[in-house]
Amino acid sequence: MRARFIEAGNRAGMKTSRTSLGSVRESLEMILHAESPRAVLVDIGDSTLLALAGDACRALGVTTAADPGTRAFDADLAIIDATAAVAETGSVLLTSDGRRRCAWIVPPKVVILVSSRALVPDLLDLWASPTSSARAFASSPPAAMLLVSGPSKTADIEGVLVTGVHGPGKVHVVLVDDGV
């Protein structure tokens, strides 16, 4: 299922990779080094992943939106985590529960960390699986949910495909193998 997710994510135009929990910081450092952001918005609910993302930014001397004097709209890259992911399509489910909605829309580049525990086979399982994080929203949905299946794209003007108009033009997805 992990290989299927990575293949589908790459086919959808995302840069999808896989790492172990122990190598998350190194994976983030490689992405940050390649993307060269001036400021990064880090908005992660998982405390372990939050600490690793912060460490990666500090190691490269990259300002984060949490630093004094830096606003979310100054960030040219965001690092966020997903609520769930779908192997069949390579899609990731992002929710607003306790997080800034601007994190997945405003910066032109985004890195989405996905726990292997959050991976389901297909869209039906996203909502039907008793262990799915998304199923918990059936009774009390968050204010916003977004199913990301690639970089932002539109072809509404003369049928010309343009990337990055209504959201990030570049999406990195890192599947974190966390022992499941």
What does this structure look like?
The protein is of the alpha/beta class and 180 residues long. The protein has a single domain, classed as Rossmann fold (3-Layer(aba) Sandwich), CATH 3.40.50. It is 23% helix and 28% strand. The chain has 4 helices and 12 strands. Helix 2 packs across helix 3 (47-59).
SSE layout and pairing:
Elements: H1 2-11, E1 15-20, H2 24-35, E2 39-43, H3 47-59, E3 63-64, E4 77-81, E5 84-86, E6 91-95, E7 109-115, E8 119-120, H4 123-128, E9 145-148, E10 153-154, E11 162-163, E12 170-177
Parallel strand pairs: 1-12, 2-3, 2-4, 4-7, 5-8, 7-12
Antiparallel strand pairs: 5-6, 6-9, 10-11
Tally of separate domains: 1
**Can you write the helix and strand succession as a string?**
HEHEHEEEEEEHEEEE
How would you state the average pLDDT, rounded?
88
CATH superfamily: NagB/RpiA/CoA transferase-like
Beta-strand proportion:
25-35%
Note the overall shape.
globular
CATH topology: Rossmann fold
Please outline the major beta sheet. 6 strands, parallel
Q: Count of helices? A: 4
Distance from first to last alpha carbon: 12 Å
